[in-house]
Protein backbone atom coordinates (compact mmCIF):
# COMPACT_ATOMS: atom_id res chain seq x y z
CA UNK A 1 0.00 0.00 0.00
CA UNK A 2 0.99 3.61 -0.37
CA UNK A 3 0.60 5.10 3.10
CA UNK A 4 0.87 8.74 4.14
CA UNK A 5 2.28 9.29 7.63
CA UNK A 6 1.76 12.72 9.21
CA UNK A 7 4.27 13.66 11.88
CA UNK A 8 6.69 11.23 10.21
CA UNK A 9 9.75 12.88 11.76
CA UNK A 10 8.52 12.69 15.36
CA UNK A 11 9.20 10.02 17.96
CA UNK A 12 6.38 7.67 16.96
CA UNK A 13 6.45 8.76 13.31
CA UNK A 14 10.05 7.60 12.86
CA UNK A 15 9.24 4.17 14.34
CA UNK A 16 6.04 3.86 12.29
CA UNK A 17 7.73 4.91 9.05
CA UNK A 18 10.55 2.41 9.60
CA UNK A 19 8.11 -0.38 10.42
CA UNK A 20 5.82 0.23 7.44
CA UNK A 21 8.79 0.42 5.06
CA UNK A 22 10.13 -2.85 6.49
CA UNK A 23 6.71 -4.36 5.83
CA UNK A 24 7.09 -3.38 2.16
CA UNK A 25 4.79 -0.35 2.03
CA UNK A 26 5.49 2.83 0.11
CA UNK A 27 5.49 5.54 2.80
CA UNK A 28 5.03 9.22 2.03
CA UNK A 29 5.91 11.31 5.07
CA UNK A 30 4.33 14.67 5.85
CA UNK A 31 5.77 16.88 8.56
CA UNK A 32 6.27 20.59 9.15
CA UNK A 33 9.84 19.84 10.18
CA UNK A 34 12.53 17.67 8.60
CA UNK A 35 15.43 17.38 6.19
CA UNK A 36 14.79 17.31 2.47
CA UNK A 37 14.78 13.79 1.04
CA UNK A 38 12.87 11.09 -0.80
CA UNK A 39 9.66 9.98 0.84
CA UNK A 40 9.19 13.27 2.70
CA UNK A 41 7.23 16.42 1.90
CA UNK A 42 7.10 19.45 4.17
CA UNK A 43 3.48 20.30 4.93
CA UNK A 44 1.99 22.55 7.57
CA UNK A 45 -1.17 20.67 8.41
CA UNK A 46 -2.72 23.74 10.08
CA UNK A 47 -3.40 24.88 6.53
CA UNK A 48 -6.31 23.02 4.93
CA UNK A 49 -5.20 23.87 1.38
CA UNK A 50 -1.73 22.39 1.94
CA UNK A 51 -3.21 19.36 3.68
CA UNK A 52 -5.77 18.54 1.01
CA UNK A 53 -3.33 19.13 -1.84
CA UNK A 54 -0.67 16.93 -0.21
CA UNK A 55 -3.21 14.14 0.32
CA UNK A 56 -4.38 14.29 -3.29
CA UNK A 57 -0.89 14.20 -4.85
CA UNK A 58 2.62 15.65 -4.71
CA UNK A 59 4.82 15.86 -7.83
CA UNK A 60 7.77 13.42 -7.62
CA UNK A 61 6.26 11.87 -4.48
CA UNK A 62 2.84 10.31 -5.09
CA UNK A 63 -0.34 10.47 -7.16
CA UNK A 64 -2.76 9.08 -4.62
CA UNK A 65 -2.77 7.57 -1.14
CA UNK A 66 -4.28 4.21 -0.11
CA UNK A 67 -4.13 4.70 3.66
CA UNK A 68 -3.24 7.35 6.21
CA UNK A 69 -1.51 7.32 9.58
CA UNK A 70 -2.02 10.61 11.40
CA UNK A 71 0.52 11.33 14.14
CA UNK A 72 1.26 15.05 13.74
CA UNK A 73 0.42 17.02 16.86
CA UNK A 74 1.76 19.05 19.73
CA UNK A 75 2.25 15.92 21.87
CA UNK A 76 1.84 17.27 25.40
CA UNK A 77 0.77 20.31 27.38
CA UNK A 78 3.47 22.76 28.38
CA UNK A 79 5.32 23.21 25.08
CA UNK A 80 3.07 26.11 24.00
CA UNK A 81 0.20 27.87 25.81
CA UNK A 82 -2.66 25.52 26.72
CA UNK A 83 -5.17 27.11 24.34
CA UNK A 84 -2.64 26.86 21.50
CA UNK A 85 -2.22 23.12 22.14
CA UNK A 86 -5.97 22.67 21.76
CA UNK A 87 -6.42 24.98 18.77
CA UNK A 88 -3.43 23.53 16.93
CA UNK A 89 -4.29 19.88 17.42
CA UNK A 90 -8.00 20.27 16.70
CA UNK A 91 -7.33 22.23 13.50
CA UNK A 92 -4.68 19.77 12.31
CA UNK A 93 -6.78 16.69 13.00
CA UNK A 94 -9.87 18.21 11.40
CA UNK A 95 -7.82 19.17 8.33
CA UNK A 96 -6.25 15.72 8.04
CA UNK A 97 -9.40 13.65 8.67
CA UNK A 98 -11.70 15.83 6.58
CA UNK A 99 -9.08 16.21 3.85
CA UNK A 100 -8.68 12.43 3.74
CA UNK A 101 -12.46 12.09 3.45
CA UNK A 102 -12.49 14.56 0.53
CA UNK A 103 -9.55 12.70 -1.08
CA UNK A 104 -11.43 9.40 -0.86
CA UNK A 105 -9.00 7.76 1.59
CA UNK A 106 -10.95 5.17 3.56
CA UNK A 107 -8.32 3.58 5.81
CA UNK A 108 -7.07 5.79 8.64
CA UNK A 109 -5.19 5.11 11.88
CA UNK A 110 -4.36 7.97 14.20
CA UNK A 111 -2.85 8.71 17.61
CA UNK A 112 -5.10 9.37 20.55
CA UNK A 113 -3.70 9.22 24.09
CA UNK A 114 -4.01 8.03 27.66
CA UNK A 115 -4.76 11.74 28.19
CA UNK A 116 -8.26 10.97 26.84
CA UNK A 117 -8.77 8.38 29.59
CA UNK A 118 -7.95 10.12 32.84
CA UNK A 119 -4.20 10.90 32.87
CA UNK A 120 -2.72 11.98 35.34
CA UNK A 121 -5.26 10.08 37.49
CA UNK A 122 -5.46 12.57 40.34
CA UNK A 123 -9.03 11.28 40.39
CA UNK A 124 -8.92 7.49 40.66
CA UNK A 125 -9.97 5.45 37.62
CA UNK A 126 -13.39 3.78 37.99
CA UNK A 127 -11.89 0.27 37.75
CA UNK A 128 -8.66 -1.54 36.97
CA UNK A 129 -7.25 -2.60 34.61
CA UNK A 130 -8.60 0.53 32.94
CA UNK A 131 -9.83 0.08 29.37
CA UNK A 132 -11.18 2.06 26.42
CA UNK A 133 -14.67 2.20 27.94
CA UNK A 134 -13.57 5.18 30.02
CA UNK A 135 -13.05 8.70 28.66
CA UNK A 136 -11.90 11.60 30.81
CA UNK A 137 -9.83 14.66 29.88
CA UNK A 138 -8.05 16.79 32.46
CA UNK A 139 -6.04 19.21 30.29
CA UNK A 140 -6.37 20.91 26.90
CA UNK A 141 -4.26 18.28 25.17
CA UNK A 142 -6.51 15.50 26.51
CA UNK A 143 -9.61 17.54 25.71
CA UNK A 144 -8.45 17.70 22.10
CA UNK A 145 -7.86 13.95 22.02
CA UNK A 146 -11.34 13.25 23.45
CA UNK A 147 -12.94 15.62 20.93
CA UNK A 148 -10.96 14.16 18.03
CA UNK A 149 -12.41 10.77 18.92
CA UNK A 150 -15.90 12.28 18.85
CA UNK A 151 -15.14 13.83 15.45
CA UNK A 152 -13.85 10.55 14.03
CA UNK A 153 -16.91 8.70 15.33
CA UNK A 154 -19.12 11.09 13.37
CA UNK A 155 -17.03 11.17 10.18
CA UNK A 156 -17.33 7.42 9.69
CA UNK A 157 -21.11 7.91 9.50
CA UNK A 158 -20.60 10.05 6.37
CA UNK A 159 -18.82 7.33 4.39
CA UNK A 160 -19.79 3.68 4.87
CA UNK A 161 -16.39 2.41 3.70
CA UNK A 162 -14.40 4.65 6.02
CA UNK A 163 -12.37 2.95 8.74
CA UNK A 164 -10.82 5.09 11.47
CA UNK A 165 -8.85 3.56 14.32
CA UNK A 166 -7.79 5.68 17.29
CA UNK A 167 -4.86 4.29 19.25
CA UNK A 168 -4.74 5.61 22.80
CA UNK A 169 -1.00 5.35 23.33
CA UNK A 170 0.39 5.56 26.81
CA UNK A 171 3.81 7.16 27.32
CA UNK A 172 5.96 6.06 24.39
CA UNK A 173 9.51 5.01 25.21
CA UNK A 174 12.19 5.39 22.55
CA UNK A 175 15.65 3.82 22.67
CA UNK A 176 17.01 6.90 24.50
CA UNK A 177 14.30 6.95 27.17
CA UNK A 178 15.04 3.70 29.00
CA UNK A 179 17.25 5.43 31.60
CA UNK A 180 14.20 6.36 33.70
CA UNK A 181 13.53 2.70 34.48
CA UNK A 182 16.28 2.91 37.14
CA UNK A 183 13.35 4.27 39.21
CA UNK A 184 11.28 1.10 38.67
CA UNK A 185 11.29 0.25 42.39
CA UNK A 186 9.87 3.61 43.49
CA UNK A 187 6.16 3.60 44.30
CA UNK A 188 5.48 6.96 42.67
CA UNK A 189 7.24 6.07 39.39
CA UNK A 190 4.71 6.22 36.51
CA UNK A 191 1.73 6.46 38.90
CA UNK A 192 0.23 9.13 36.63
CA UNK A 193 0.34 6.55 33.80
CA UNK A 194 -1.11 3.71 35.92
CA UNK A 195 2.45 2.35 35.76
CA UNK A 196 2.29 1.89 31.99
CA UNK A 197 4.68 2.54 29.10
CA UNK A 198 5.03 1.30 25.52
CA UNK A 199 8.13 0.91 23.36
CA UNK A 200 7.98 3.01 20.18
CA UNK A 201 8.39 -0.17 18.10
CA UNK A 202 5.32 -1.69 19.74
CA UNK A 203 3.41 1.54 19.09
CA UNK A 204 4.40 1.03 15.44
CA UNK A 205 3.27 -2.60 15.62
CA UNK A 206 -0.18 -1.45 16.80
CA UNK A 207 -0.35 0.97 13.86
CA UNK A 208 0.64 -1.74 11.36
CA UNK A 209 -1.94 -4.18 12.76
CA UNK A 210 -4.67 -1.52 12.73
CA UNK A 211 -3.96 -0.70 9.09
CA UNK A 212 -4.22 -4.38 8.26
CA UNK A 213 -7.28 -5.26 10.35
CA UNK A 214 -9.31 -2.04 10.62
CA UNK A 215 -12.90 -2.56 9.51
CA UNK A 216 -15.33 0.15 8.37
CA UNK A 217 -16.44 2.24 11.35
CA UNK A 218 -14.61 3.76 14.30
CA UNK A 219 -12.71 1.86 16.99
CA UNK A 220 -10.59 2.96 19.93
CA UNK A 221 -7.79 0.85 21.41
CA UNK A 222 -5.54 1.44 24.40
CA UNK A 223 -1.92 0.65 23.55
CA UNK A 224 0.64 -0.20 26.22
CA UNK A 225 3.26 -2.82 27.01
CA UNK A 226 1.90 -6.00 28.59
CA UNK A 227 3.76 -5.27 31.82
CA UNK A 228 4.11 -2.20 34.03
CA UNK A 229 7.30 -0.17 34.22
CA UNK A 230 7.77 -1.09 37.88
CA UNK A 231 9.29 -3.91 39.94
CA UNK A 232 6.42 -3.69 42.47
CA UNK A 233 3.69 -6.28 41.73
CA UNK A 234 0.66 -4.83 39.95
CA UNK A 235 -1.83 -5.89 42.65
CA UNK A 236 0.25 -3.98 45.23
CA UNK A 237 0.37 -0.92 42.97
CA UNK A 238 -3.41 -0.96 42.51
CA UNK A 239 -4.02 -1.24 46.26
CA UNK A 240 -1.47 1.46 47.16
CA UNK A 241 -2.36 3.97 44.45
CA UNK A 242 -6.13 3.53 44.29
CA UNK A 243 -7.49 1.92 47.46
CA UNK A 244 -11.11 0.84 47.04
CA UNK A 245 -11.05 0.89 43.22
CA UNK A 246 -12.35 -2.46 41.96
CA UNK A 247 -9.80 -4.71 40.29
CA UNK A 248 -11.77 -6.66 37.72
CA UNK A 249 -9.42 -9.55 37.06
CA UNK A 250 -6.74 -11.57 38.76
CA UNK A 251 -3.59 -9.72 37.84
CA UNK A 252 -0.39 -11.35 36.65
CA UNK A 253 2.63 -10.35 38.78
CA UNK A 254 3.56 -7.29 36.68
CA UNK A 255 0.54 -7.18 34.39
CA UNK A 256 -0.34 -3.82 32.87
CA UNK A 257 -3.05 -1.81 34.67
CA UNK A 258 -3.91 -0.19 31.32
CA UNK A 259 -5.77 -3.00 29.61
CA UNK A 260 -4.60 -4.07 26.17
CA UNK A 261 -7.09 -6.95 26.00
CA UNK A 262 -9.17 -5.33 23.25
CA UNK A 263 -6.13 -4.73 21.04
CA UNK A 264 -4.89 -8.27 21.74
CA UNK A 265 -8.26 -9.85 20.89
CA UNK A 266 -9.22 -7.79 17.85
CA UNK A 267 -5.87 -6.79 16.36
CA UNK A 268 -3.65 -9.64 17.55
CA UNK A 269 -1.46 -7.07 19.32
CA UNK A 270 1.29 -8.73 21.38
CA UNK A 271 3.97 -6.27 22.56
CA UNK A 272 7.49 -7.44 21.70
CA UNK A 273 9.71 -4.99 23.58
CA UNK A 274 9.45 -5.16 27.38
CA UNK A 275 11.88 -3.18 29.53
CA UNK A 276 12.43 -6.03 31.99
CA UNK A 277 13.55 -8.35 29.19
CA UNK A 278 16.28 -6.01 27.92
N1 LIG B 1 5.03 10.28 22.74
C1 LIG B 1 4.07 9.85 23.56
O1 LIG B 1 4.35 9.37 24.68
C2 LIG B 1 2.62 9.88 23.11
C3 LIG B 1 1.67 9.28 23.94
C4 LIG B 1 0.33 9.30 23.55
C5 LIG B 1 -0.02 9.89 22.36
N2 LIG B 1 0.93 10.49 21.58
C6 LIG B 1 0.50 11.09 20.30
O2 LIG B 1 1.19 10.44 19.24
C7 LIG B 1 1.40 11.37 18.19
C8 LIG B 1 2.88 11.45 17.86
O3 LIG B 1 3.56 11.85 19.04
P1 LIG B 1 5.15 11.94 19.11
O4 LIG B 1 5.56 11.56 20.47
O5 LIG B 1 5.76 11.24 17.96
O6 LIG B 1 5.34 13.51 18.99
P2 LIG B 1 6.55 14.32 18.32
O7 LIG B 1 6.45 15.71 18.81
O8 LIG B 1 7.83 13.59 18.51
O9 LIG B 1 6.16 14.26 16.78
C9 LIG B 1 5.11 15.01 16.25
C10 LIG B 1 5.49 15.41 14.85
O10 LIG B 1 4.40 16.16 14.29
C11 LIG B 1 4.94 17.24 13.58
N3 LIG B 1 3.96 18.32 13.52
C12 LIG B 1 3.48 19.04 14.56
N4 LIG B 1 2.64 19.98 14.12
C13 LIG B 1 2.58 19.86 12.78
C14 LIG B 1 1.90 20.56 11.76
N5 LIG B 1 1.13 21.63 12.03
N6 LIG B 1 2.06 20.17 10.48
C15 LIG B 1 2.87 19.11 10.19
N7 LIG B 1 3.56 18.43 11.11
C16 LIG B 1 3.42 18.80 12.39
C17 LIG B 1 6.18 17.65 14.35
O11 LIG B 1 7.09 18.40 13.53
C18 LIG B 1 6.73 16.30 14.79
O12 LIG B 1 7.70 15.79 13.90
C19 LIG B 1 0.78 12.68 18.64
O13 LIG B 1 -0.58 12.74 18.20
C20 LIG B 1 0.80 12.55 20.15
O14 LIG B 1 -0.20 13.36 20.73
C21 LIG B 1 2.25 10.50 21.92
Order of helices and strands: EHEEHEHEHEEEHEHH
CATH topology: Rossmann fold
Question: What is the share of helical residues?
Answer: 25-40%
**Which stretches are low in confidence, meaning pLDDT under 50 for 5 or more residues running?**
none
Domain NAD-dependent epimerase/dehydratase: 3-179
Pfam family, one: Epimerase
Keywords: NAD, Oxidoreductase
Family: Belongs to the NAD(P)-dependent epimerase/dehydratase family.
Question: Could you outline the blueprint of secondary structure elements for this entry?
Answer:
Blueprint lengths: L1 E5 L4 H12 L3 E6 L8 E3 L5 H9 L10 E4 L11 H21 L4 E7 L26 H19 L4 E7 L2 E2 L24 E2 H14 L3 E7 L10 H8 L19 H7 L11
Parallel strand pairs: 1-2, 1-4, 2-3, 4-5, 5-6, 6-9, 7-8
Bound molecules: nicotinamide-adenine-dinucleotide (NAD).
Give an overview in words:
With 278 residues, this protein is α/β, with parallel strands linked by helices. The protein has a single domain (2-178, 197-228, 258-277), classed as Rossmann fold. It is 32% helix and 15% strand. It has helices at residues 11-22, 48-56, 82-102, 140-158, 200-213, 234-241, 261-267, and strands spanning 2-6, 26-31, 40-42, 67-70, 107-113, 163-169, 172-173, 198-199, 217-223. The strands form two sheets. A seven-stranded parallel sheet has the order 3-2-1-4-5-6-9, sandwiched between helices. Helix 1 packs across helix 5 and helix 3 (82-102) packs parallel to helix 4 (140-158). The longest helix has 21 residues, at 82-102. It is globular and about 55 Å long. The mean pLDDT is 98. Bound molecules: nicotinamide-adenine-dinucleotide. Residues 7, 9-13, 31-33, 43-46, 71-73, 75, 92, 111, 113, 169, 171-172 line the site of nicotinamide-adenine-dinucleotide.
Amino acid sequence: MRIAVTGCNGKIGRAVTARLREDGHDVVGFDVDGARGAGFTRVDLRDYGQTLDALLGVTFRHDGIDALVHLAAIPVNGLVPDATTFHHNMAVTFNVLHGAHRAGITRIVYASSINAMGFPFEEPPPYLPLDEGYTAANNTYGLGKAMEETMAGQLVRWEPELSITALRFTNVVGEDDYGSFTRAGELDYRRDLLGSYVDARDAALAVALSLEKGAPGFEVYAVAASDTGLTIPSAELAAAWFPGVPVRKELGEFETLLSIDKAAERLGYVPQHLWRER
